[in-house]
Structure formats: structure tokens, C-alpha cells
Amino acid sequence: MEKKKQSLREVYVNNIYAVRLTASASKSRVIHSFFGKLIGNLEWVFFSGFFMRYIVNQLEQGKEFSEIFAFILICGAVFFLLAIYQSYVENVAVPLAEPAIYGEIYEKIYEKARNVELRCYEDPDFYNRYTMAADHAVERVTAITDNIWGVVTGIMASFLVLWTMYRIDPVSVLFVFCPLIGNFLFGNLKNKFEYMRYQEEAPKDKVLNYVNRVLYLPDYAKEIRLSEVFRLLKRQYNEATDEKSDLAGKYAWRIGSMNVLWHFFTFTVMFEGVLLFAIYKNLVIGSMSLADLTVMSSLMVAATWILIGLFNSVMETMKNGLFICNLRTFLEYEEKIPEDQDGILPSKELESLEFENVSFSYKEEETIQGLSFRITHGEKIALVGHNGAGKTTIIKLMLRLYDPAEGTIRVNGIDIRKYNLRAYRELFATAFQDYQLFGVTIRENILMGKHPEKEEQLVAEVLKKVGMYEKVAALSKGIDSVVTREFADDGVVFSGGEGQKIAVARAFAKESPIRIFDEPSSALDPIAEYELFSSIMKDGESHTMIFISHRLSSVKDADRIFMLEQGRLIEEGTHRELIQFDGRYAEMYKKQAMNYLAVESVEGVAL
To answer: Residue 539 in contact with residue 510, Cβ under 8 Å?
Structure first.
């Protein structure tokens, strides 16, 4: 990802953005953070600049013990009450606010992730930005709130400390420039190098996370044990860790040297320098009283820690601003196909679906080229062709997961971009080859969030249609069995073919006018495939259907077959017509037919 240097204005904007995110979820979290930081800094000022001076002056003036004791007792009581409040903030207020902040921020992240167009997930730069945005988002957002108040209250406390030092001796204030140099110059460079290392490590971490995920997910367990793929994964893992080690070495000297210089200017020069100066003024010149020497020593400690806290807050604010920039850029990304796009509500009855000179490119490679066709109500259309012919891309264009680069897609004569997007997608029921089953009940997996408690009869009906009713009914919890053993010991794990049947059942349950089946039977044996396709055709008599299958024996009953090659429609017609034409479709069909146990005659049109 491109490295970007932040301007001060961008730092300010990004940090204010983070504070507003926190405040929108929990205003009390922001308020408590302010008072917590304020109390912490003012305690340093009070103790070093006033408390110690008062005690030493009282001792020099020979005041009564009872008077000094009363003062210390009152101060102790106040400090104790403040400690109770700070403990409340740290152990009660902040933990109670965190879930609300976590929920609101991740709701925004997940909502944006759900709404961005599909192409974004195929873009490594976008995916990197997404993972960096989601990486510890809540911790960074709330840390910025704490750091900003650390800056504000640190400036207030620093002013009071420096003003007190100036009153004692104006020259002593010059020592403050040492931690300024240490933090703003060397501390800033240290943070910059750390962020650069983080950015360069992100792609390597993706590889490590992928390998970790593959090794603990049950989906991959059989292949790992029955092949040598573990060796390949181990090589990927080792290469990524080696590259991370190289990056650590690359930045170790830079970060380490900046840290040494930061420590020297911030602690060594400041601490020893002020102390030697005060002792010199007291012992050699005699212009500083013992009380002032005591206060100066105490102020030196206070100033050191207050300035360290201030500059750390400044540096952390700038560093976290870089991460918040990713979050802000991600959340403010304007979707090319916004999921909440309003528009015309489509008719629930399909009259026609038309592609007119549609072209589409992916990463500058044209995958669909000048495609035109028209599908009318009730037609059964099969898309066939070799891998990479553009079949699935056509489906994604129909569903408006992609928008065409050129040309127009119309439903009922209206450009689909004019429709309300969610209402438009309700026209389609889909079952993809790369379907996903979720860690919820079978009922919920079929109805996909649509009032599962009210549709028990519908679920039973669609399970019967796909031949899964008896299997599910035999389970201890029936349709309320969870589809995973990750959360429940009595959960169910379906085979690939059974999972595909559940995906088809989803399409049946949705009752949309257009049904799309993308390789819905690739994991089934020929008999189960025949039965499933028979059920699909029978149940879809009143629906428009579009299906993809590499097994051409499954598409013979289609009203029309579209033969695709390199994103172009090269042949179109019924099975009989295309066999008579004796083109690419007939060639593919005959090659497949030779492998069937019961080979049909491929002579003439009797196929």
C-alpha cells in the first residue's frame, strides 16, 4: 500500500474523527477520560509545586506539628477521594463503556464491508486497508480519546510547572527544550519507523494468518493429512516469517538508535541537568533557598514525567492518526454500487431480462465482450462453456454484484441501475457452487434471516424437494440443529453434496421469479444429480431459470443453451439445434458422452 505522510491538519482531522466515533457510542467515556487525565497531571503539579514548598516553608518557620499534620491529613483525604474516582474510571466506567463503543464501531465496519462492491474484495490494496482498519479499531479509537485529553491536560500542567520554575529561576526553563528535542525529533522518527515496519509487515501477516487459519479449520484437515500440501504451507509460513525477520533487522537499528537518543535527551539531560543547576545555585552562588532547591528538584521530576506523558500522547496521537486514516478512508469509501441505493421498485413479475452490448473487464482483462441476449418470462436458460468463458461473471452482472464497463442490462425494459438495489436483488434466488453454510440452524440456513420461526412448513417442503427431509428429520433437533460442531457438540456437518442440496433448498424457499443455479450439483453422483435437476425443473415451471453446468447431460432440457467462449456468445439454441449445428457445443457434448457408462448415440439429432 502506498505510504502517505500526514500533514498536521490531517492528524487533527483524523483524531477529531476518532473522538466523535467514541462520543457517539459513549459520551461518558470521553468525559471520564478527560477528568482522569486532568487529575493525574494536576496531582503532579500540586505535589511538586505547592505541597513540597508548603511543607519545607512550614518546617523552616518552625510551625507546630499539629498544623503541618492537619494540612497533610486534608491533602491525603483529597488524594484518596481522587484515587477512588480514578479507580472507578479505570475499573468501572471504562469497562462498561467498551462494549458499546466496540459494538458501534464494528457495526460501522461490518456494514461498510457488507455494502462495498464485490470487486473491492478482489483488490489486495482494498483488502489490506480493510484489515488494517479492523485491526484493533476500538483500542486505537479509544486510545486517541485518552491521548488527546493527555495532550490537553498535559499542556495545562506543563504551563503551571514551567511558570512555577520560571518564578524560582528563569534559566531553569531552558532545560525543558531537552525533552522537546528528544520527543518531537527522535520520538517522532521512532514512531515513523514503527509504522513503516507495520505497513511492510501487513502482507506477510496475511500469509501467516492464512496458514494458521487453514491448519485449524476442519475443512482442510483431510487434504492436509492425505497429501504433501503441509510442506507447501510450511514453506509459505517460513518464507513469511523470514521476511518479517528481515524487516525486523531492517528497522531494528533505526528504531533502537532513535530510542537511545530519545531516552538521553528526555531523561538524562533533563534530570541530571536541572538537579546540578539547582545545587550549583544553592551551594556556589547562594541565590537559591533550600525550599526552592527542594521545590526545583520536585518540579524537575514532575516536569520530566508530565512532559514525557505529554509528548507520548502527542506521538501516539500522530501514530494512531495514521491507523485512523485507514479506518476513516475505509468508512468514508463511496460504494460504486451502494447497497442502500434507492430507486424504482421492480415488478415482482418478470417479463424480460436483456443484455445489450455488455462488456466487462477485470484488472484490465476483458472477460465479457459485447454480449447481447434477451430472456423472457418462464424460459429455462443454460450457460455452458469452458472455465473462464465468463459464465459466472454474467451471473454476477445480472445480480448487480458488478456493473458493466459498457452496455446496458435491462429488466422489464428498464436499466437495472435505476432500480432500488435490494428490491431488485429480491427478484433472484441463487445457489452457487461456492455456497456457504453458516453456523446457525438448518432452518435459518435455508430462510437466511427471514422470520425462521414462522416458516417451519416451508422449510420441510423445500427439504423434501431436494431429498434432504429424512436426513434432517432424523437429527435430534431436526431443522433446529446447528450446522457446525464448532459451537455445539450436537451440531451437524454436511457432506459436499448435502450442502449443495441445502443451497438449492434456499433458492426454492425464496420464491423469487428468477432462479439461478451455478453448478448446483457438482458434488453429487450422477443419480443424485439427475434427481436434483428433475426437482429443479419441476419446481421451477413457473419461474425463469438460468443455470450453469459443466455436465452437458444436465442442460438438454433447457429452452435455450448459450455457448460461451472468451466472454462471447458464439452459439445459441436448443440442445437439438446445437447438435445439428455441429459446432463447439456439439463437440463438447460428444466428448463428454464418450465417458458415460451408457453412451447415447451421437448420430443425427436423436440425442
So the answer is: no
Domain boundaries, the chain: 16-331, 377-395+418-593
> pTM for this structure?
0.65
Q: 377-395+418-593 has which CATH code?
A: 3.40.50.300
CATH architecture of 16-331: Up-down Bundle (1.20)
184-235: pLDDT as tens digits? 778 778 878 888 888 888 888 888 888 888 887 766 776 776 667 788 888 8
| Among 447, 442, 426, 438, residue whose Cα is nearest residue 515 | 426
Paired with 546 in beta bridges are 381, 516
3-state secondary structure of 1: coil
230: three-class secondary structure by DSSP: helix
Contact 570, 584 (CB under 8 A): yes
Equal fold, 16-331 vs 377-395+418-593 = no
Q: Tens of pLDDT along 396-413? A: 999 998 899 999 999 999
Q: Torsion angle, CA of 289/295/301/302, rounded to 10 degrees?
A: -150
- Burial of residue 434 (CB within 10 Å: 0-12, 13-18, 19+) is exposed
